[in-house]
Amino acid sequence: MALLPPDPVFCLRSPEACSYYSLCFRTPEHLYAGTTKGTVQLWTLQTNRTSYQLAVGSSPILHLAHTEDALITQEKEGTVKLWTLADADYVLRHEISTEHVGFCRMALDAQTNTVIIPRNGAAISVLCAKSFSETMRFAPTAEDEKALPYGTVMCFQPVELQSQRYLLAGYESGSLVLWDFRTGRPVGTTAHFMTPDADCLQTLDYDPVTNRGVCGGSSSKLSVFSIDRGTQQVLLKSEIGIKNAGVHRVRIRKDLKVFASAGWDGRLRVFSWKSLRPLAVLTEHKGELLDVAYSEDKVAMWNAPVMAAAGKDGQISLWDLYK
User: What pLDDT does residue 192 have?
Assistant: First the structure.
């Protein structure tokens, strides 16, 4: 007899009656949530209540990241802001216009203390996380565009291969491109994702331990890929069909046991990362899911790490997948 999918350990309801775009754990007990109203809510999981709210702007908070001493917010209309703590309040220190209006989320590279942001079209900038000054820009040349169509940048993630830093980026055309931090040039590409039903990539995640990644977008499948360590080519390994098309986020849990996808249909799908076998379809949400986040350590109330998911129905579901 098949096991029934688990229930969430708790559901947090928005005090503003608004939708959520982004989630970020600072500690296991503190969950930041970016809303469609341009605010960031701090949820304390010891009480399951909001303890702080930051007014960022009037545009949805597309993405959140937290360093040891600063909060970084990305608004959907294109502004990225750096906030530092002062007297128990966040103070705006730097802001930059990305010139990118869309769904591509920034990335915090803690290893190099940089923030990577989308720019207009296919361009990507690397910023110093302290000063927001640009240290590098990745942009395809006219010759690059002739060899492989790019389109607007949709997602990216810094990766390390054989002790070298690269940026893996997905584009509107369905292409995955590997950029070299040493030269600022692309070194590996693939066109395997440019199929008729794959309008564009929207999300990716990569695991350097097994040298595998997973990506998804507007199609009815998730694509699993690897990177050839000799040629730096991105290679399609397999595909996972999903019942309803459209995925906003895929996230691999840090222990490499599972990964989850946040669907346009409101379904949270959980898979084994080792076998890629589907484990559960979680149906708590009644609207599009927009983000998934994992706590790195145990949350005291449930004595377990939790997965958080949120979207357009204005609730954040918390799950203990270990049990």
Answer: 53
